[in-house]
Design brief:
It is a single chain. By secondary structure, the protein is α+β, with helices and mostly antiparallel strands. The strands form two sheets. It has a six-stranded antiparallel β-sheet with strand order 3-2-1-4-8-5. Strands 6-7 form a two-stranded antiparallel sheet. A hairpin with a 2-residue loop joins strand 1 and strand 2. The protein is globular, with a radius of gyration of 20 Å. The two termini are about 30 Å apart.
Length: about 230
């Protein structure tokens, strides 16, 4: 972060420190296999019922086998994620996507090695790179899902536009206000058979490896991030 230093001084720091460090870490991560990105995702038929989202395990199932309950905003407009899907009363099924991404266990191991050796600056650099790479992978695959759902036409052309959510729908990660219950990730892990891909949940429902994220992908054009 620039902080209180002048734009000129910050530009010098970028040139002499930030970019060279970033380039060095990228080269090291590639040559030593420190980042091992992996994506697991799937589409599921669903229907809403007030604050509950019913989920069909198979497209041909006559009735849904799973559900997730979501919180609702206490103030106007009183949103809840199920609002963005067709209701059970409509008789029509909708579709959602679940997504899991990780940069692998080696990133966690290497970061711990640096920490244990008291190489704290390098630890912070690499840990930050791994975390942001996992987030970038989640954003990248969200874009792939929009393309597969054929709702990508409104995607912003610039990276900054995508950061401002210039696209249709939303990617809601568990643990954040719209879907705060980490325990609900158990269903995602079951449907996506995540343990077979080397992903696990701790007793507190944290994902292992550490640099990993889960999400529900909502395609509705009015779906935006919100707090409850």
């Amino acid at each position: 972060k620039r902080g209180k230093i002048s734009p000129e001084k910050y530009a010098q720091v970028e040139l002499e420190t930030i970019h060279p460090t970033f380039d060095r870490l990228k080269t090291q991560a590639i040559s030593e296999g420190l980042l091992q990105p992996k994506v697991n995702y799937g589409y599921y038929a669903c229907q809403s019922e007030v604050d509950r989202l019913w989920i069909y395990e198979q497209p041909t199932d006559p009735e849904p086998k799973h559900f997730i309950d979501f919180p609702r905003q206490g103030e106007e407009p009183g949103r809840s994620i199920p609002d963005y899907f067709r209701s059970r009363d409509s008789g029509e099924r909708d579709v959602l996507a679940f997504q899991l991404v990780t940069v692998g266990a080696r990133a966690t191991e290497y970061a711990q090695e640096l920490f244990d050796k008291n190489i704290y600056t390098e630890y912070l650099y690499f840990h930050g790179l791994a975390v942001e790479t996992a987030e970038a992978l989640a954003e990248y695959w969200h874009k792939k899902i929009r393309e597969e759902l054929n709702i990508h036409q409104q995607d912003g052309q610039q990276t900054k536009e995508l950061f401002r959510q210039k696209y249709q729908g939303s990617r809601y990660s568990f643990g954040y206000p719209a879907c705060p219950e980490l325990k609900d990730q158990e269903l995602i892990f079951k449907l996506l058979e995540a343990t077979s891909e080397g992903l696990e949940l701790t007793e507190e429902y944290q994902i292992v490896p550490e640099q990993s994220t889960s999400a529900i992908i909502v395609h509705h054009p009015q779906a935006k991030y919100f707090s409850t």
